[in-house]
Amino acid sequence: MTRIVDIPSSRVSNFFRFQRDPLGFLVDAFPLGDVVSLRTSSFQPTYIINSPDFVQEILVLQEDKLRKGRSAGVLRRTIGDGLLTAEREAHRHQKRYLTPAFYKERINRYAEVVIEETERLADSLTDGAPVPIHDVMMQLTLGIIARTMFHTELARDKAALADAVDVTIRHTASTIFSPVILPFGWPTPGNLAHRRAIRTLEGMVYGAIGAARRNPGAYADSLLGLLLDTTDEDGRPIADTEIRDQMMTMLLAGHETTANALVWAWYSLERTPDAAGKLRRELDAVRMRERRDGERRTGSDLYRELTYARHVIQETLRLYPPAWAILRESASGLDMLGDRFPERSSFLISPYAIHRSKAVFGDAEAFRPGRFEDGAAGWARFAYFPFGGGTRGCIGSQFALMEAVLILGTLAERFDFVSVPGQGDAVPEPLVSLRIKGGRMMIPRRRTAGGSVSRAAAASAPAEEAADESSPE
Fold this sequence. Notes:
The protein has 19 helices and 13 strands. By secondary structure, it is of the alpha+beta class. The protein has a six-stranded mixed β-sheet with strand order 1-2-3-9-6-4. Strands 5-13-10 form a three-stranded antiparallel β-sheet. A two-stranded antiparallel sheet has the order 7-8. It starts with a strand and ends with a helix.
């Protein structure tokens, strides 16, 4: 018996509804069935995939029979043939030489950079002075990715680079879901702004490549150093253009998604006082132990201790997954779980909709980090998949999770973030990743209760004083 159901609305109404509100369209389509046919043309039939077992077929079990197709073609305008856009053997080759950049020992070193950059930001915040929280998080994660991946200090260039990233993301998102894709060479206002933004990003990228070639020893522990040391099957070094493509990929995919997730986390904590209180108690307990022991925790040690902070990020990624939609296309006919899909089929998978399954999560619309305390026991493999899956799953998922947790913990130890009044509820904006529409102005409020201390104070406190102020266990 087929598990494919036809959507009841017309093709025209589907098109306009999706263009107007893609997230609402996908959430409404979720209860219709495991696989929902949009009744598009027979030349390129399109399906929404709602069932975890079909998601596993597409992303893992039959991934070699599918490609990213249209979405990769649009992204290629900005990032070239990097890991995010490469197909099949080229993708497998690139993933092999990029994987060492995300080995555990490297991630542990990256953790120290995350804390340093976040504390630098915390020192710059003024109690009670509103900030555009999306811009602040974007510049923070951009600085982190530049230091960890490229061994590059951005300093005064952060704002300009973050603006360039914003331009490329907005234009890319509008192009991916446009019914007609205009050639990138056409001098439309959008294309011209996009090309200027790319030149801005390339200025940083090629500058870093040149500096690394002049002084390779200084870049040995970075992704850029790894790329400079990599050779192909014939022993030839990677061309600068390929290094550029991988660096552009990491710039766009490696910081904007984390920044967006953090903005949603601050917003969700503000709206859920119980969760915010539990996070504060965990942070205070960790710092109290640090003062009692009289030694500074490493970034990796701190990450392991911040269990509830990790659950906060995981729950944020459930409700507001940056990768809100995953697209795949088949060149030939495909058999999946008893159903036959014709050649040139397109598949749209929405973690945003699937993560809202009441059958799996119960109170699915509620922000409740505690649901992760049991280790997601009993959930189907692809009931929750914020980082995708299969060989095309996010190569930096462990780094991204660590980074988000340490940023959250470091800032939440010193500040609560409160929305400026009058903004109303946050509305998701589905671009290349999921943002708050229009951004969010938030006020950092310095914490005064709970005995929380800064990392520097905890590290410098005399051991006997720390012992006096700690509670017996």
